[in-house]
Every structure is written in structure tokens, then in C-alpha cells.
């Protein structure tokens, strides 16, 4: 989305830089490209005052100026230094850039231990992350650092193995050094501060190294299922292997649209940190004879080649509908189903975790549903009132709110609705609070957000336009 620039192109700042295009923005700041190739941070004086008062930035580095009725300040940065929002995930191109960010992170935290840095602006020139004090939910420091280092994956920097799998361009010892420089200790798999033995490196790089418990806010049943039937088997492979269980079985998740199937799978993929592949109509469907089966085979081959990996089959009814039904009796449909029947057991034996999703479980071919191919068929329904309450409490955990906010009232009204509705109401309530000049979320704002977001139940009566 284009940024509505405060300054015109060619505007000359106090330090002599010429502003060009506005690249990023927040309520109280904007970042421009500069004619010389660098960047310029322009902020309202009220925001800059907070940086100075908190001790994060020395006043001598700030140049103030007036533009119209606005009192602004600017900080310029040359082409050799990064200047960008942390949330833009302009990840490092080399270890030197990663070390510079790590040291800036630690230097900022040494001065300011409380301000959230998920919405901060990274100014490499001054080795600082400048918080912008937005009302968006804060994120823990370890996840902020991990997401920046991996290009946007919400992974904790403490999860060494996962971060390592997402930053293969650097060695394990260099990654450990970067983490230590940021102020976080490398704790997994017995890693010592400052160096890695070959044994420790092997343990960290192992796809089956122990990890923190997987959590899925608002869906305790799915969380428990994933932890028991997938993650525990992966984390304790040797123990399970002695009892004849080599790898987690394939899974089908079914339920109505918006019930949270895709969200749950995405969280699991992020947690595992494995390469992921997806089979859906846009990636493999073809009008040409044998072409769909060929693409399906190639996708399985890629997943096996990159194992351990995750292969997600989305809208599986498009490929695996009952061959005896009216719409699925053609030779080509039989061929596609047969390809899946052959490939699924092979992929599982080669450490590919297969998760299929569908809204129409009744359409799936019975041969696919047999155990040995998909051992688990899990129904995912709309969240209950208790599950919605758990999700709301998790969303509110790090948000400023007053005593009037009642999670129970909201949960009762949002039960049996898509989980995306729950997140939207909380986010919209925060937006209404900010628009009203408040610094905390109130129940009034949340109820207004709820009123403005009626259920989009497809079964509800809709007003139609046309002739009767």
C-alpha cells in the first residue's frame, strides 16, 4: 500500500538530505528514501521526546524543523547503514549485519527494559531500536529478534534448532555468537556461550532435538492432539522406534470454513521449522491428460527429498473425491486418486508429515480414508464459548485494557463463529480506542467493534437483488 507522504519529493532536511519516496509509516513517523541512496526517518517531536526522555537516543543526534503546522525531527542514514521498521523484516544479508542488529538490540535493552520493540525502528547508525509505542499487542523480545533474523517467521531466538534451519546461510557457531551478542543465552542442547563443539552442533541441527511445548491458543483439543500424536513422537524418536513407530501418521482435518484448520496447521509448521509443501488446485490442477498426476508425484518427490518436511493437502476433495460418485468416475480422477494411494505411505516412511484438510469429508474416496494411509481423522468445529474465552484472554495478555473489559461477555457473543472474527473484534476494538484518543482498550470500544462485525454465516438469510 502506498504511503501518504508528509513531505514533498525533493524536500531538503536540516542535515542537507533530499527526501524522495515515503517507504514506511506509522501514526507518528515516516521513513523516506533519500536522493543520495540512504534513508531519512521523520518523526513527530512528541515521539522523539519519548526517545530522549527514556535515554535511548541523545538529543544531539536529532534535527528539529517545522513543516506547516507540524513540529518534526529527522534522522538520516547513509546507504551503508540499515534504517527500517523491525516489522519490515529486512533481514541481514551477512553475519556482519546480523551482529550489528544483535548489538543494537542489546544496547537498547540496556537502556530501556520495558518498551515493546516489535513496532520499533531499527537505526543501525546509532545502534538503537527506537520504540514507537503503538497500541498493537506487544511481542516477546525473543520472538521479535527471531522474526527479524529469519525474515518474518514468528520463531523464538531461543529455539536454536528452528532458527538454524531457517538461516542456513550462516554456520551454527556464528548463529550462537549472534544470539549471545543480543543478550539471549544459547541454552538448547547444551550449547556453551561463545563456542560450539561438533557434538553440540550435531544435536542442534538434528530435526528431532527437544523443543518447547507446542501451544495453540483457544484450541486445547487440537493442541493436545498435536503434542501427543506428532510432537512427542518427533522429540522422542528413539523410544518410539523401539516399539515399532517410526514417524507420525498422516492426518485429515475436516470442518466448516473458518473453523481454524489452516491456522492450526500454519502454527504447527512454524513450530516444527521444517520445509513445507502444499498441494492445492492452484499448484497441481491441470486440464491436460496425466499432467495433474505428474505434478502430484513431483510434489511428493520434493517433500521426500527435503525430509523431514510437511506436506499439506488443501481442499483434498478436489483430488480425492469418491471415484464411484457421479463427479469422480472419470479415468483421470481414478488415476489421481491412485497416485495419492501409492505416494502417501511412501512419504510417511520417508519422514514426511502429511496433513490433509477438507470442508467436505463425505466426498472423500473410502480407499483414502482407510487406516494405514490416514490414521487420524479429526473434526475441527467452530470454537466453543470456553475456547473463545481462552483465545480472547491470550490476545488480551499483552494489551493495555481497563477494568471494564469482560472476556466472558465477548466469548458468549463470539462462540461458534470463525476464530478470525475473534481476532478481528479485538483488533478493531484497539483501533477504535486509539481513534478516540485512548491509551487503553475499553469494553465500550470492543462492543462497538462486535456490533460492526456481524456474523458472515453463509446459511443466514441474505438480501438478494434481482427479479423474483
Task: Tell me what the structure shows.
The protein has 468 residues and is an alpha/beta fold. It folds into four domains: 59 residues, Phosphorylase Kinase, domain 1 (2-Layer Sandwich), CATH 3.30.200; 123 residues, no CATH class; 160 residues, Rossmann fold; 67 residues, Helicase, Ruva Protein, domain 3 (Orthogonal Bundle). Helix content is 40%, strand content 15%. It contains 18 helices and 13 strands. The strands form three sheets. A five-stranded antiparallel sheet has the order 1-2-3-5-4. The protein has a five-stranded parallel sheet with strand order 10-11-12-9-13, with helices on both faces. A hairpin with a 2-residue loop joins strand 4 and strand 5. Helix 15 crosses helix 16 and helix 17 crosses helix 18. The longest helix has 19 residues. The C terminus is likely disordered.
Instruction: Give the CA-based shape.
Output: globular
Structural class by sheet pairing and helices: alpha/beta
- Average pLDDT for all residues: 81
The strands making up the biggest β-sheet line up spatially as 1-2-3-5-4
Q: Would you give the CATH topology of the largest domain?
A: Rossmann fold
Name the CATH homologous superfamily of the largest domain: P-loop containing nucleotide triphosphate hydrolases
Distance between the termini: 41 Å
| Count of runs of 4 or more consecutive helical residues | 18
How much of the sequence is in beta strands?
5-15%
Tell me the major beta sheet.
5 strands, antiparallel
How would you summarize this macromolecular structure in one to three sentences?
The chain folds into four domains: 19-77, 2-Layer Sandwich (Phosphorylase Kinase, domain 1); 83-205, no CATH class; 220-379, 3-Layer(aba) Sandwich (Rossmann fold); 385-451, Helicase, Ruva Protein, domain 3. It is 40% helix and 15% strand.
Amino acid at each position: 500500500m502506498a504511503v501518504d507522504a508528509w513531505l514533498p519529493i525533493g524536500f531538503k532536511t536540516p542535515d542537507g538530505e533530499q527526501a524522495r519516496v515515503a517507504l514506511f509509516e506509522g501514526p507518528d513517523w515516516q521513513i523516506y528514501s533519500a536522493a543520495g541512496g540512504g534513508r531519512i526517518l521523520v518523526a513527530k517531536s512528541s515521539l522523539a521526546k519519548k526517545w530522549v526522555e527514556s535515554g535511548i537516543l541523545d538529543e544531539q543526534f536529532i534535527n528539529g524543523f517545522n513543516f506547516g503546522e507540524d513540529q518534526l525531527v529527522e534522522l538520516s542514514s547513509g546507504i551503508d547503514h540499515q534504517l527500517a521498521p523491525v516489522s519490515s523484516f529486512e533481514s541481514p544479508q551477512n553475519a556482519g549485519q546480523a551482529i550489528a542488529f544483535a548489538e543494537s538490540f542489546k544496547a537498547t535493552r540496556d537502556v530501556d527494559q520495558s518498551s515493546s520493540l516489535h513496532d520499533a525502528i531499527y537505526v543501525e547508525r546509532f545502534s538503537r531500536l527506537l520504540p514507537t509505542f503503538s497500541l498493537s499487542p506487544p511481542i516477546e523480545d525473543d520472538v521479535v529478534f527471531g522474526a527479524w533474523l529469519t525474515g518474518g517467521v514468528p520463531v523464538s531466538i531461543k529455539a536454536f534448532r528452528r532458527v538454524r534451519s531457517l538461516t542456513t546461510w550462516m554456520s551454527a557457531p556464528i548463529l550462537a555468537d549472534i544470539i549471545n551478542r543480543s543478550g539471549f543465552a544459547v541454552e538448547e542442547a547444551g550449547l556453551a556461550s561463545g563456542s560450539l563443539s561438533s557434538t553440540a552442533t550435531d544435536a542442534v541441527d538434528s530435526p528431532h532435538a527437544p523443543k518447547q511445548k507446542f501451544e495453540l491458543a483457544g484450541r486445547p483439543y487440537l493442541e493436545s492432539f498435536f503434542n501427543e500424536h506428532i510432537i512427542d513422537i518427533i522429540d522422542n524418536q528413539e523410544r518410539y522406534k523401539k516399539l515399532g513407530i517410526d514417524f507420525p501418521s498422516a492426518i485429515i482435518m475436516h470442518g466448516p470454513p473458518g473453523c481454524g484448520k489452516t491456522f492450526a496447521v500454519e502454527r504447527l509448521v512454524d513450530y516444527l521449522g521444517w520445509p513445507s509443501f502444499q498441494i492445492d488446485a492452484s499448484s497441481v490442477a491441470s486440464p491436460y491428460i496425466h499432467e495433474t498426476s505428474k505434478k502430484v508425484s513431483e510434489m511428493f518427490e520434493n517433500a521426500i527429498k527435503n525430509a523431514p518436511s510437511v506436506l499439506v493437502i488443501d481442499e483434498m476433495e478436489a483430488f480425492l473425491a469418491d471415484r464411484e460418485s457421479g463427479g469422480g468416475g472419470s479415468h483421470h480422477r481414478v488415476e489421481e486418486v491412485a497416485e495419492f494411494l501409492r505416494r502417501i505411505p511412501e512419504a510417511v516412511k520417508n519422514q514426511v508429515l502429511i496433513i490433509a484438510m477438507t470442508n467436505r469429508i463425505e466426498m472423500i474416496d473410502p480407499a483414502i480414508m482407510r487406516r494405514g494411509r490416514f490414521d487420524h481423522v479429526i473434526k475441527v468445529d467452530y470454537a466453543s464459548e470456553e475456547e473463545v474465552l481462552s483465545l480472547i484472554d491470550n490476545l488480551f495478555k499483552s494489551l493495555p485494557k481497563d477494568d471494564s473489559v469482560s472476556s466472558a461477555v465477548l466469548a458468549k457473543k463470539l462462540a461458534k463463529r470463525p476464530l478470525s472474527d475473534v481476532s478481528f473484534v479485538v483488533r478493531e476494538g484497539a483501533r477504535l480506542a486509539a481513534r478516540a484518543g485512548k491509551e487503553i482498550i475499553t469494553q465500550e470500544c470492543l462492543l462497538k467493534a462486535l456490533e460492526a462485525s456481524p456474523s458472515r454465516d453463509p446459511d443466514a438469510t441474505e438480501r438478494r437483488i434481482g427479479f423474483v
